[in-house]
Amino acid sequence: MKKTLLTLFGFVLSVFSVFSQTIISQQDFEAAPASPAWNYTVSGTGGSIQSGQNSSSGRPASANLFNSGLQSFGVNNGTLIFDLSPVNTLYLKNIEFNLKLASYSTTTSTNGIESSDVFEVLCSVDGINFYKEIEVKGHATSNNACWKFDATGVASRFYSGAGNFGSFTASGGGLIANGHSSIVLTDLPSVPNLYFRISLKNNSTGELWLIDDVKLIGEENTSPTLLTTKKTISDINYLVNNGPSVPNNYALTGINLTPATGNIGLKAPANFEISLNESSGFGDTLTLAYADNSLTQTQIFTRLKSNLNVGVYGGTGFNIVHDGGGATNLNIKLDGRVSDGLFCGTPIDIDSVRRTIPIQSSYTGLVPYTIKGKVTGVFGSNKFYLQDSTGGIAIFQSSIVSTNSLKLGDWVSLTGIPTRFNGEAEIVSTTCFDKIAGGVVDSPMEFDTNNPPTDTSLTAFLNINEGKLVKIKSINVLNYGTFISGTNYNLSACNAQGFSEIRIDAGAVSIIGAGIPNITQDIIGVIGRFVNATGSANKTQIFPRYLSDFQESSVPCLPSGGCGVTSYTEAQDKLDVFNWNLEWLGNTGFGPTDEALQLNNCITVLNNAHADVYMLQEICSYNAANPEDNTTSFGKLIEGLNTAHGANTYTGECSSAYSYSYIDSPDPFGQRVCVIYKKEIVSKIFSRPMLDSMALASYPPTGRKSQFWGSGRLPFQFMAGIDIGGKKDTILFVGLHAKSGSAAEDYERRKFDVKVLYDTLQAQYPSRKTMVLGDLNDDLDQSIYVGGHASTYAPFLHQNPSDTLLNSVRPNPFWFPVTDVFSSIGCASTGTFSDYIDHQILSDEFMNKHSGFKYKTNSVTSYRPIIANYGSTTSDHYATISQFEYYLRPVLSPCSNLITLESPTDDYLNQTGDVFASKVNGKIVVTNIITNSSNIQYFAPSIELKPGFIAERGVVFKAQNGGCD
């Protein structure tokens, strides 16, 4: 099922009056919000409206889940961004933002927040650059803190607008009386649009952040006033002999000015200069004209002058002075510095430091190093990437970003210990840190998949430039849905340049919750690495920093390497087989919310594929008495295909077994497996559920026999004759929709169900050409059940069908999973998970040299059509398609040259040797015995082993491909 973006609206605030201290906007989360209600949107996971009381076993036990009224908003075991709509504060003063905050444990009296569970308030004056102002988190060592809404602690801070925030930590663990229940942000700027963002993160099922009574208050301002977005500008720095500094900017506005027209004068302090242009026109003074009693918001740029000596400049008394318009003078304090970059010592190049760090999961160096470079990526408060001309590396230390107000392009020097954490090369335990100067990020290194270097693959490029900022041009993301924090997503480069992956760091807040692009992208990011504890996983990862790091490519392509295509053309002389889960089609309560749009999109997908056989899952609207009934969703699918491709071209049916088959009315909750087929090519021989007459003595996974095979949606067998232009065959299709889920019980249920299916197929159809296909709800390389378990389809995969270990010997010689290629290269078949679970497994009759339809090598692909918001409008699964071509076995010449080896005359005892027959028409027929340490090789176009033949060890048989008959 899909996850929807939660968007909640209050009333739109269009006009308000302010008399003294007044509520400007508020959100109390009630069913009828208090006015003036403050609109908000939510993205991420774990968020919902809360009401009632906490559980009696939780902490605080049975406490109200709200501060006032009946409701609040909570985040449970999630990472969530809560954005309030912007407010015009231009004609306000003494502006304050406040809310109530509580921390609960919903499950036990011993849970609560730790230092990794964080609440944040961020502000922005442009809706793009958000700066943290307040942070509340658990205690560093005394874990599991909880407090109620009436706790006495106050987290209060004045507005910074530059990343200098107040950090507030719980005083200890357990239920604390002085928890920070009151959040207050004062001295907010008067601007046309003031944005507020609340970030909430916790990581345990029982942990619950609660917010309530969010308010913005202020007073009407009728006096002549000059306003700014910043009252102090720091870090106006540069490296000696590299001046002037990079310009910093602020916004200047005037309201209620008198007289109606006039001028505002600006004067910079010594050693600084100002301009209206970022790159030119700097001087000591500026004059701005205003009209109609106001100065519209104007951007002012300031910088430290060039050719200054090493030293500190600005500070108290060094202000940009703004005067005029009858307003009190506005002063903005400036702080600057010219550095020699040697505060932490003489730096060594980053590449040399990286060479001291072995590539493994975990490592800690013994010697500290000093490095210097530019900040290329910032991820939260604790992590950033630093790069010089030789290389790049991650820096990790608690609050290092927030404490130093780091921004992209900043020049930094630091001393610390080189390490690896989960394979990521990092500098930690810094003993010296110097923010040398501001700057701009250099252009990323590029890998253009349309014009790739002749001597470097994409994989090699990423390995060579680990730690650096890069740009990969023309690459596709192979997943659909929305980006989730701490999740990997597969990439396929254009022009068959290979595969990689991106990882969405928890600090990349602008990306989390955003839609995954379904068209070719140019992606910017920093290259990291992941190595697991055993070293079996060792790969580079690209970490995009912001949503703007994804840009539509000017040179698009289809996903390459067989992982997926956005369009599909059927082959006229081949059999096209298509399987797809349509996500609750026909059920208005689950799946995509717009049922009509989903149905139209599904018809479009089927029409464009124009396959011969469609095996479909999760059909929830069907008339068994008339499968083509166009008042049902299934009937409309057939109608859509026949409208596009000709009347009576397609027909189909659904299995009589469905989820919860024991209920009287299957619609709309009974999920069916169905088949649609092209009548000219496919003729039904029989169809029926498998295992429906099987009398289970028990159901070991749970003890409830009704839960067998997805609580009733039994495998659906459809035996069909195939005829393409006189080329005929008979195929048994077995459509599956297996038990879903990655929990231990889900795994055990699925494993039991699959083994019963395997044993039944082997017993009932030992030589039948059989295709098992559909939503298998498990991957084939290993199970989706966490912890490194073998796939539940192990019987079809392992040489010994009873082996259930992850490293069991493969393959099963009688079954061939043609879709395991997707598992091996890391493709996904859903938009919400990283595994490929929609598979096709073929019996060996598709692979041998008997006449009939056989699998066309490398034809299987994942069908990913370009449909707007596919994951929320169509399905959470992608279709899988494969092709089958007709093979006519050639007539073999007779084996007229025979060599017969019989026992006991031709027995071998402790002998070594070779037996050859004619290369043209030779055949060796054996009934002899080979014993002890004999090592005998037979070479012939055909070798026949007859009853009585025994080989104890060491025999090698070699037969010619094709042979004789």
Would you write up a description of this structure?
The chain is mainly beta. The chain has 6 domains: 7-220, Galactose-binding domain-like (Jelly Rolls); 225-338, Immunoglobulin-like (Sandwich), CATH 2.60.40.10; 350-437, Bacterial OB-fold (OB fold (Dihydrolipoamide Acetyltransferase, E2P)); 445-477 and 485-544, OB fold (Dihydrolipoamide Acetyltransferase, E2P) (Beta Barrel); 575-887, Endonuclease/exonuclease/phosphatase (Deoxyribonuclease I, Chain A, 4-Layer Sandwich), CATH 3.60.10; 897-959, no CATH class. Strands 1-3-6-15-8-9-12 form a 7-stranded mixed β-sheet, with no helix packed on it. Strands 2, 4, 5, 7, 11, 14 and 16 form a 7-stranded mixed β-sheet that branches. The longest helix is centred in the C-terminal third of the chain and has 21 residues, at 744-764.
Low-confidence stretches: 1-19
The overall pLDDT average reads: 90
CATH architecture term of the largest domain: 4-Layer Sandwich
CATH class of the largest domain: Alpha Beta
Top keywords for this entry?
965 residues; mainly beta; OB fold (Dihydrolipoamide Acetyltransferase, E2P); 6 domains; seven-stranded mixed sheet; 10 helices; 9% helix; 42% strand; disordered N terminus
